[in-house]
Specification:
The protein is mainly α. It is a multi-pass membrane protein.
């Protein structure tokens, strides 16, 4: 942070501004530039992690959300690039660059605000979509496609089976040929196809809890946290936008005084 301040101080002195009059604006703006860079790195990291780790889960949450990791990666990269632009604009003391940077921050602020509000308001629709897509995944389960792998991952990681319970598998075409998937088993070494094709016997071999309640409970618990983080990041960018505008006005006023 101190390195950035000294760099800005030297740049501004070249343009004729006294550094003593600038700390009240530049120092907070420099801190928020660093904060913006950190949020960009976080979004980028979450996007990469989501693509590598959660790719199979995303297809079960919503039909059109498979590009979500790419959106996070793109947003994080854009924030990092514009954060560097903000550093350059601050150090150069360029009013039009600072105004452009403030405009970018305002767009990001509005986008994050809308995303946070939409995620909270439409959380029930997300649950309904998950129920529909998860039901379809069970009905079309074949153990080979992406959604089938996602179903297996959910059932294994959450120790659950089916939608509301393991009995939901009794209506799946897969059940009539192979029985309940082995991903439902409490102990995979104690499960065989013959047992899994018999609902009475399978009741003692598979997890009893359904996956829908566990997944939606997780979503309900964490939706407020996610919305809070989105609003927090948006608020920091709003302050950065205001400081960038103040710095731009300050530099413009000094230029007129110098003339």
């Amino acid at each position: 942070m101190s390195h950035l301040w000294f760099r800005c101080e030297n740049e501004l002195r070249v343009y004729g501004f006294e550094a003593a009059s600038m700390p009240s604006v530049v120092a907070p703006d420099s801190f928020l530039l660093l904060l913006l860079q950190i949020t960009g790195v976080i979004l980028l990291a979450v996007g990469v992690w989501g693509k590598l780790t959660l790719g199979t889960y995303i297809s079960l949450i919503a039909e059109n959300s498979t590009n979500a990791p790419y959106v996070l990666i793109g947003t994080g990269t854009t924030i990092i690039v514009f954060g560097l632009f903000g550093c350059f604009a601050t150090c150069r003391g360029s009013p039009w660059m600072l105004k452009l940077y403030a405009m970018f921050l305002s767009l990001v602020f509005l986008a994050e605000l809308v995303a946070g509000i939409s995620g909270f308001v439409f959380r029930h629709e997300i649950k309904d979509t998950f129920l529909r897509t998860y039901t379809e995944a069970i009905q079309n389960y074949n153990k080979n496609d992406e959604r089938s792998h996602a179903v297996d991952n959910v059932q294994e990681s959450l120790s659950c089976c089916g939608i509301q319970s393991y009995t939901n598998w009794s209506t799946s075409p897969y059940f009539f040929k192979h029985g309940i998937p082995t991903s439902c088993c409490m102990n995979s070494s104690d499960c065989n196809t013959q047992d899994l094709r018999n609902m009475t016997v399978a009741a003692t071999k598979v997890n009893q809890k359904g996956c829908y309640d566990l997944v939606t409970s997780f979503m309900e618990t964490n939706m407020g946290i996610i919305a809070g983080v989105a609003f927090g990041i948006a608020f920091s960018q709003l302050i950065g936008m205001l400081l960038a505008c103040c710095l731009s006005r300050f530099i413009t006023a000094n230029q007129y005084e110098m003339v």
